[in-house]
Amino acid sequence: MPEMASKRYHSLSLAFVATVALLLLASNRAEARFRGINSFCTTADQRLLCTRMVHGATNWHDAVANAINMSLELATNIKSMLPRIGPLLTDLSPESRDSTIQTCAENFDSAVDNLKEALTYLDAGDKGSLNTYLSSVTISDCIDAFDQFSAPFPDTLSKAARVLGRQVNNILAVSQQI
Length: 178
Fold this sequence. Notes:
Elements: H1 2-34, H2 47-54, H3 60-80, H4 94-124, H5 127-135, H6 140-148, H7 155-175
Protein backbone atom coordinates (compact mmCIF):
# COMPACT_ATOMS: atom_id res chain seq x y z
CA MET A 1 0.00 0.00 0.00
CA PRO A 2 2.79 2.51 0.71
CA GLU A 3 3.99 2.15 -2.87
CA MET A 4 0.51 2.94 -4.23
CA ALA A 5 0.23 5.98 -1.94
CA SER A 6 3.63 7.10 -3.14
CA LYS A 7 2.53 6.87 -6.80
CA ARG A 8 -0.67 8.76 -6.03
CA TYR A 9 1.32 11.44 -4.19
CA HIS A 10 3.75 11.65 -7.10
CA SER A 11 0.86 12.04 -9.61
CA LEU A 12 -0.73 14.75 -7.50
CA SER A 13 2.62 16.55 -7.23
CA LEU A 14 3.05 16.52 -11.00
CA ALA A 15 -0.51 17.81 -11.48
CA PHE A 16 0.14 20.55 -8.94
CA VAL A 17 3.39 21.60 -10.63
CA ALA A 18 1.70 21.62 -14.05
CA THR A 19 -1.16 23.75 -12.72
CA VAL A 20 1.20 26.24 -11.12
CA ALA A 21 3.22 26.45 -14.34
CA LEU A 22 0.08 27.15 -16.38
CA LEU A 23 -1.06 29.83 -13.94
CA LEU A 24 2.33 31.53 -14.04
CA LEU A 25 2.34 31.44 -17.83
CA ALA A 26 -1.15 32.93 -17.98
CA SER A 27 -0.18 35.58 -15.44
CA ASN A 28 2.90 36.54 -17.47
CA ARG A 29 0.77 36.85 -20.61
CA ALA A 30 -1.72 39.07 -18.79
CA GLU A 31 1.11 41.22 -17.46
CA ALA A 32 2.65 41.46 -20.93
CA ARG A 33 -0.69 42.52 -22.36
CA PHE A 34 -0.78 45.50 -19.97
CA ARG A 35 2.93 46.32 -20.06
CA GLY A 36 3.30 50.04 -20.76
CA ILE A 37 -0.39 50.66 -20.10
CA ASN A 38 -1.35 53.09 -17.35
CA SER A 39 -3.22 51.30 -14.57
CA PHE A 40 -6.24 53.58 -15.11
CA CYS A 41 -6.51 52.33 -18.70
CA THR A 42 -6.66 48.55 -18.33
CA THR A 43 -10.42 48.52 -18.99
CA ALA A 44 -10.29 50.95 -21.92
CA ASP A 45 -10.83 49.75 -25.47
CA GLN A 46 -7.98 51.91 -26.78
CA ARG A 47 -5.41 51.32 -24.02
CA LEU A 48 -2.43 53.01 -25.68
CA LEU A 49 -4.48 56.08 -26.57
CA CYS A 50 -5.88 56.11 -23.03
CA THR A 51 -2.38 55.94 -21.57
CA ARG A 52 -1.42 59.01 -23.62
CA MET A 53 -4.59 60.74 -22.47
CA VAL A 54 -4.00 60.26 -18.74
CA HIS A 55 -0.25 60.97 -19.24
CA GLY A 56 1.21 59.95 -15.93
CA ALA A 57 -1.67 60.74 -13.57
CA THR A 58 -1.21 59.12 -10.18
CA ASN A 59 -4.80 59.37 -8.96
CA TRP A 60 -8.24 58.84 -10.41
CA HIS A 61 -9.25 62.52 -10.44
CA ASP A 62 -6.13 63.60 -12.32
CA ALA A 63 -6.42 60.72 -14.77
CA VAL A 64 -9.99 61.72 -15.67
CA ALA A 65 -9.12 65.43 -15.77
CA ASN A 66 -6.10 64.87 -18.03
CA ALA A 67 -8.16 62.73 -20.38
CA ILE A 68 -11.02 65.25 -20.52
CA ASN A 69 -8.60 68.09 -21.20
CA MET A 70 -7.07 66.19 -24.11
CA SER A 71 -10.54 65.59 -25.56
CA LEU A 72 -11.49 69.21 -24.94
CA GLU A 73 -8.48 70.26 -27.02
CA LEU A 74 -9.60 67.99 -29.87
CA ALA A 75 -13.23 69.16 -29.64
CA THR A 76 -12.03 72.77 -29.78
CA ASN A 77 -9.96 71.93 -32.87
CA ILE A 78 -13.01 70.30 -34.47
CA LYS A 79 -15.02 73.43 -33.69
CA SER A 80 -12.39 75.53 -35.47
CA MET A 81 -13.02 73.47 -38.65
CA LEU A 82 -16.55 74.90 -39.00
CA PRO A 83 -15.59 77.56 -41.59
CA ARG A 84 -14.34 74.78 -43.88
CA ILE A 85 -17.76 73.14 -44.04
CA GLY A 86 -19.63 75.75 -46.09
CA PRO A 87 -17.55 75.41 -49.27
CA LEU A 88 -18.15 71.66 -49.22
CA LEU A 89 -21.90 72.17 -49.45
CA THR A 90 -22.09 74.28 -52.62
CA ASP A 91 -24.37 71.74 -54.32
CA LEU A 92 -27.07 72.28 -51.68
CA SER A 93 -29.73 74.95 -51.67
CA PRO A 94 -28.83 77.95 -49.49
CA GLU A 95 -31.41 76.86 -46.89
CA SER A 96 -30.05 73.31 -46.70
CA ARG A 97 -26.46 74.55 -46.58
CA ASP A 98 -27.27 77.05 -43.81
CA SER A 99 -29.22 74.42 -41.88
CA THR A 100 -26.32 71.95 -42.07
CA ILE A 101 -23.80 74.58 -41.00
CA GLN A 102 -26.07 75.64 -38.13
CA THR A 103 -26.49 72.02 -36.99
CA CYS A 104 -22.73 71.44 -37.07
CA ALA A 105 -22.03 74.71 -35.21
CA GLU A 106 -24.48 73.78 -32.46
CA ASN A 107 -23.14 70.22 -32.30
CA PHE A 108 -19.51 71.35 -32.05
CA ASP A 109 -20.40 73.94 -29.39
CA SER A 110 -22.29 71.28 -27.46
CA ALA A 111 -19.32 68.87 -27.53
CA VAL A 112 -17.01 71.54 -26.11
CA ASP A 113 -19.58 72.66 -23.52
CA ASN A 114 -20.29 69.09 -22.40
CA LEU A 115 -16.60 68.42 -21.83
CA LYS A 116 -16.30 71.64 -19.81
CA GLU A 117 -19.35 70.62 -17.76
CA ALA A 118 -17.85 67.18 -17.23
CA LEU A 119 -14.77 68.84 -15.70
CA THR A 120 -17.05 70.85 -13.40
CA TYR A 121 -18.83 67.70 -12.23
CA LEU A 122 -15.52 65.89 -11.81
CA ASP A 123 -14.33 68.64 -9.47
CA ALA A 124 -17.67 68.56 -7.63
CA GLY A 125 -17.37 64.79 -7.14
CA ASP A 126 -20.65 64.12 -8.99
CA LYS A 127 -19.74 60.97 -10.89
CA GLY A 128 -23.24 60.43 -12.28
CA SER A 129 -23.40 63.86 -13.91
CA LEU A 130 -19.78 63.51 -15.02
CA ASN A 131 -20.59 60.34 -16.94
CA THR A 132 -23.85 61.79 -18.29
CA TYR A 133 -22.04 64.77 -19.79
CA LEU A 134 -19.23 62.59 -21.13
CA SER A 135 -21.75 60.27 -22.77
CA SER A 136 -23.30 63.19 -24.62
CA VAL A 137 -20.05 64.32 -26.27
CA THR A 138 -20.46 63.55 -29.95
CA ILE A 139 -20.66 65.27 -33.30
CA SER A 140 -23.12 62.77 -34.74
CA ASP A 141 -25.77 65.45 -35.40
CA CYS A 142 -23.37 67.16 -37.82
CA ILE A 143 -22.62 63.85 -39.52
CA ASP A 144 -26.35 63.11 -39.77
CA ALA A 145 -26.98 66.55 -41.33
CA PHE A 146 -24.48 65.74 -44.08
CA ASP A 147 -26.05 62.31 -44.56
CA GLN A 148 -29.52 63.83 -44.83
CA PHE A 149 -28.46 65.69 -47.97
CA SER A 150 -26.13 62.95 -49.25
CA ALA A 151 -23.23 65.36 -48.95
CA PRO A 152 -19.77 63.87 -48.45
CA PHE A 153 -18.57 64.38 -44.91
CA PRO A 154 -15.06 65.92 -44.84
CA ASP A 155 -12.38 63.27 -44.38
CA THR A 156 -10.35 65.22 -41.80
CA LEU A 157 -13.48 65.94 -39.80
CA SER A 158 -14.50 62.29 -40.02
CA LYS A 159 -11.12 61.17 -38.66
CA ALA A 160 -11.28 63.74 -35.86
CA ALA A 161 -14.81 62.59 -34.97
CA ARG A 162 -13.63 58.96 -34.73
CA VAL A 163 -10.72 59.94 -32.49
CA LEU A 164 -13.02 62.06 -30.30
CA GLY A 165 -15.37 59.09 -29.95
CA ARG A 166 -12.49 56.82 -28.94
CA GLN A 167 -11.22 59.40 -26.47
CA VAL A 168 -14.63 59.79 -24.84
CA ASN A 169 -14.97 56.01 -24.55
CA ASN A 170 -11.58 55.94 -22.84
CA ILE A 171 -12.58 58.69 -20.42
CA LEU A 172 -15.72 56.78 -19.54
CA ALA A 173 -13.66 53.63 -18.92
CA VAL A 174 -11.36 55.55 -16.59
CA SER A 175 -14.16 57.44 -14.85
CA GLN A 176 -16.08 54.27 -14.06
CA GLN A 177 -13.19 52.59 -12.24
CA ILE A 178 -14.18 53.96 -8.83
